[in-house]
Write a structure and sequence with these properties.
The structure holds two protein chains of two kinds. Chain A is of the alpha+beta class. Chain A contains 15 helices and eight strands. The longest helix of chain A is centred in the first third of the chain and has 29 residues. Classes of the chains: A alpha+beta, B alpha/beta.
Amino acid sequence: MSAALKTDYLTINMGPQHPSTHGVIRFIIKTDGEIIHECDPDIGYLHRGIEKLAESVSWQGFVPFTDRVDYVCAMNANLSYSMAVEKLMGLEIPQRAEYIRVIVSELNRISSHAIAIGAANMDMGAFTPFVHLLREREHINDLLEMICGARLTYNYICIGGVNYDLPPGFKEKTLEFLDHFEVVVEQINRLISYNQIFIKRFANVAVVPPEMAMQYNLVGPNLRGSGVKFDVRVAEPYSIYPELDFDVPVGEGYEGTLGDCYDRYLVRVKEIRESIKIIRQCLQRIPGGEHKAVVKNVIKPPKGHIYFRTETPRGDTGYFIYSDGKTSPNRLKIRTGSFTAMSIIPEIAKGVFIADLVAIIGSLDVVAPELDR
Amino acid sequence: MNTIGIYELLKEKTNVVASFQEVEGPTPSIYVRSDFLLEAMRFLKEDEELKFEILMNQTAFHETEDSKLFWHLYFDAPKDQDESHSHEELRLFWHLYSYTHYHRVVIESSIPIGNPVIDSVTSIWKGADWLERETYDLLGIQFEGHPDLRRIMMPEDWEGYPLRKDYVNPTAYQSIDNTPSEITRSFQPKGK
């Protein structure tokens, strides 16, 4: 009788519209019962051809598009692109602008990590932390709205500095928020990070050893979760980061194995504290002066190519720009953190439960528009 | 180690045909002839003094006559090849980084547009898999030795390679009309 029973892999489809895929991503999963045998991510549903668009807009005109590359941390995307073009042009920007840039991008890093942590919790079935963290993010959105009038896609950092100076009262409000938020981080930790049910779901799942992380070029918190102490802000310092005092948290196998989902998650929580430290130092030291260098309306960077990367919440975002001395880039390529994080999923998702695939996506903090560009 | 040091080491220890590209602009790079690519890359990763464990980025672009940047520096490009392809080619870039020595290097190469085939570096860095798929998808470069070369951003039945300079936007896709509306056309500069 048993000889007549035939077993086979069952291919199932997850997405593109799925509540826990953080955007429009599709997975084709070959399952052996409850276990994933093979997982093939199918991306491109949000491909808007931003790299092609870059070839037909002016250099300044591309800044709003960088907002849309990753709308969860638009300031950091603005910063990467603006700094890449400035490096290409050899443009010096005022010291005050550098400080404002670091303040806003670290604020945006906090809000992005808040979403990452909240979404990871929601994927694991805990709805409360996500709602609480969204409320806190509203405070950051209010602060950034004070600066530039927009709440999600800012178009604030521009080539040569920032578009507007800090409004009166911004410093006090930011300090007030930071005092409040430090308490919230502790509350969230007590509520969920040290919660045994949550730890049981995240610990020892989808372990990424440091060698594998390097092979696949994981970046940012995902790389540091595997125990590699590397941060672009420290290793290839840009802006005013060398003057600031902050730590680079790395995964240490907090609840089991080094490089598991929980390590990646906890690195983000710790990074929020470091960002708070950075903002406090910047607000203390910010000098007066101009907020924008004098830049012509039509700029033509000299011929040449550059690959410049900055540390964004989802790892380092690299802009490859090739200029042929005209009014728009000849070629622009954006290497994002989500792209490489996604490419590792077929390898680490082998042999895990289907329910844990959701944990993997949540811990890698993949954002679909950044993945597809 | 800086790029010139890496270049000298590469020349000294291997017989790769390469040239050092020092141009105006922020980034010097090493030009490697396409048939020596795999040998050069393997050396760059495995040499103790270099140890480039990371492929940060891989990209390419379509270089037409007017965007030519380094043509006069191609001292080792075969002459007859120049004429047959009328200076049009695909230029590829690899950005490497080392977490051991904290240095970076830019490797570049070029292939003729008529025969866009180059070795894949997936056997050296697994992360090259998706990066090469993207380059294949958008620029139509065939990576030889790639385990799974298919489109990644565009649909599987898409025709043409969007990031090539001679690409023409399709007027329809799967019977979905894509002709620009009258309003869109009114914004287009005259003569196009």
